[in-house]
Each structure stands twice: as structure tokens, then as C-alpha cells.
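Lab channel / #folding
Pinned by the channel admin:
"Please post every new chain as: sequence first, then the C-alpha cells as a reply. Keep commentary short and put observations after the output so the thread stays searchable."

First post following the new format, from NK:
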Amino acid sequence: MTDDSEEHDKLVSAYDRMMERFRATLEHAEKSTLPAVREQIRAAGEKAVELGELSREEALRISDYLQRDVEDAGRFLAESGADLAGWLRFDIGLIEQRLLQMFASAADRTKLALLQIEEQARLASEYHTGEVTGIGTLQCAECGKLMHFHRTSRIPPCPQCHATTFNRVQED
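Reply from TO:
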């Protein structure tokens, strides 16, 4: 396995573990606000550093990716009243049940807090090649090609035009 593959696997796995830690912490919180959500994501990253799973820099990157995805999903749920299937833009039956439950729980608990800070959520909508993203559909900002992510993955260049900037696609 190459160093790039090892780093890819490490970061993708770290995203899923941090999501699980974040979700588990939220289950014990009675009322979450966005600052509390961000703090819990930061704490999940610190735990990864403490356990030697990631360097501090890697944990900060994954925390940023996780926060972006949770805020984006929460904003969609709050604004649209739709379910996660609309945000993902594909059949949720294709997703591992455990991952879907983790993501749905985190996104649902986040949606009320996100209603309070719309301008912050707008900043969380741009995705770039090389970043890690959770489940969902991204659209190339250049050519409009849709890319479906059925599991946590690193974002590749657009397969159609090789551009590197994407936006989350939401059900209309």
C-alpha cells in the first residue's frame, strides 16, 4: 500500500470515528447550540490526537470537514423540512445503517442551532478535491457533473472536466 493510500484510509476512517464520537456525545446533551456542536466536534478531534490516531493538523482538517457536512445537512433539514434522502440525493437504503444513524442523529440535533446562524452555514457549502466528505451528492462547480458519495471518501477531481471545486446538491 502506498503512503497516499495509507493516509487516505487513515483520514476516511478518522472521519467516521470522529462522527461516532460526536454523535455519542450529542446523545447525552439535552439542548445543543451551534457553539456546543462545534466544541463537541473539536473534542472528538482532540480524542483522536490523544489516542494517537491522528496528528493535531490532521484532526483539525477532519474536524473542519465534519463540521462542514453536519452544518450543511442541518441547514438543509431546517430550511426544507425534508429528510436526509433529499440532502443526499440518492436512496438511503444504499448506505450502511450504522453510518446513516450516526449522520442522521448528528444532523437532526444540529438543525435547530443552524437556524440561528445562516451566514455561517453558507460558508460551509464549498468542497474541494482532496478534502474528506461524508455521504451525499456533490456537483462540480465548473461543468455540473454530479458525484455521489455512498460512504465517507476523499473528494477526487471531477471525472468529467477535472475541476476541483464542488457544491453540495440538495433535493429541490
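NK: The two ends are 41 Å apart (CA to CA).
TO: also worth noting, The mean pLDDT is 77.
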